[in-house]
Structure prediction request, 270 residues.
Amino acid sequence: MPELPEVETTRRGIAPFVEGRVVTRVMLRRRNLRWPIPRAIDERLPGQRIETVERRAKYLLLHTQAGSALMHLGMSGSLRVTGPDAPWRKHDHYALVLDSGQELRFNDPRRFGCLLWEQAGEVHPLLRHLGPEPLGDDFNGDVLWVASRGHRATVKSFVMDQSVVVGVGNIYASEALFMARVHPKRAAGRVSRKRYAQIAAAIRGVLSYSIARGGTTIRDFVAPDGEQGHFEQELQVYGRAGEACKVCGTPIRAAVIARRTSYWCPHCQH
DNA sequence: CTCTTAACCTGGACGC
DNA sequence: TGCGTCCAGGTTAAGA
Prediction:
């Protein structure tokens, strides 16, 4: 479910209920998600005031003086703010109880998400090798072009590499390459500097537009306020195999590239 | 290093 | 209805 726009939509949804609140209690219904939930979550988070909620790549960080709760939604995770007596749903794995009486609940059927602890003053190992934020000032076509020299893997998997640029998942990779008119199977090192400028602009454009539309709801993404995303209906190629290209009418092709299904227009993209 | 592959999980859609 | 198969928005770790 969550790519960068969905994570950012989640951040914006929970921030008003979480920032400035003290975590009074941590309730864990299991100690393992993708990785074990460290003891520090139980031992250090209670009593701490959440100063800010930050998104870095597809991670969310609840910053406190002692350190930060580091969360990832994986493939199927979601966060919601509930009242104190809300019943636990299937696949609710933890709750952070706040001094407002409300709770931040995490639900994740596939359990690819995580809840980890980042000690104050340190950078968690998972965050150490991330590329630039696609909506930040230090991301542009030249960043992609420089990083891609000598790479023989496809440009599709290249733009999805989180050490190159963060936040471009399977949906938006297909969408951005369509907008830039670049064929997803082209070798990353054989894409020109000029075309990387177009790819970078397309990544920036599709992500910021999707955030403005509340994220993409493919199956079950629901923002913390219960609203569904509205970008799905505007997808140009993702999930449209065999349907007409919205630009030229040619049937959209689909194939598995680096183990992920990819979509492109064989006429528009080269 | 670069690149590919397997692995972590559950549930929904589909075919029989 | 039920059962088997395939597929899904992510990312790491191991292997080549």
